[in-house]
Amino acid sequence: MTTTTPDTQSTVPVEGGDLPVQVFLPAAEGGPGVVLFQEIFGVTGYIRSRARDLADLGYVVLVPESYWRLGSPVISEGMDGLEEAMATSGRLDWDRTVADAVAATRYLGRRPEVSGPTGLVGFCFGGGLAWATAAHLADEGEAPAALVAYYGSQIPTLLDLAGRIRSPQLHHWGNADQFIPPEGVDAVEEAVTAGRNATFCRYDGAGHAFDNPSPAFHHAQASARAWPVTTDWLATHLAGRAGTS
């Protein structure tokens, strides 16, 4: 994956200031919307690459800078930056961060380029943020049309939100996740698949952040298997067509 730049940048008025957002546009300059939530390392080149991948598939993609209240740091990916990344995420006000994410999702839905529904995609820290955002929007009768969470690191601590989420859900987890114990992953699977439109995918040999290209985390086979499942899911729920692998 290569580092890419957004097509445009904007801000969303939120409590205490303006949330910076990066916007990636499809060639047709219009389509369904996707809010893509960052990993614990910030809005890195990898996150921007995934945003561009989705834009190339026809989505209008918005990436909120969820660390903006801390100066929008971008932290070195890999084990050498992990301690700093965890400390940075630990300084966030979670409720405000979720409120920012809700505002960003609503903002994307109002952009003139967006035609059709909006979905949420999150990686690691962003997976938990997408999960919480979906619950809060559902409370207001605004359930996103799709939710995709890659190894949502905070979801095991947010299982009380499960009954509030109304969006179709797709979850990806590695069976060798070194940060989330197996019982935590099992609890997430039980919560999200209990009578809901949900798909839960596990990948043998893959650890946490397996889609991240950093050698410390990347699992090529799991990443290659998970991405077409993601794009098919989004095509079905956002574009109204069966996706193709």
TrEMBL record:
InterPro entries assigned to the protein according to its UniProt record, in alphabetical order: AB_hydrolase_fold (IPR029058), Dienelactn_hydro (IPR002925), Dienelactone_hydrolase-like (IPR051049)
SUPFAM superfamilies given in the database record: alpha/beta-Hydrolases (SSF53474)
Entry keyword set: Hydrolase
GO MF, any single term: hydrolase activity
S-adenosyl-L-methionine is among the record's keywords: no
Dienelactone hydrolase domain residues: 23-237
Enzyme Commission number(s) from the entry: 3.1.-.-
PANTHER family recorded: ALPHA_BETA-HYDROLASES SUPERFAMILY PROTEIN, CARBOXYMETHYLENEBUTENOLIDASE-RELATED
Protein name: Dienelactone hydrolase family protein
Organism phylogeny: Bacteria, Bacillati, Actinomycetota, Actinomycetes, Micrococcales
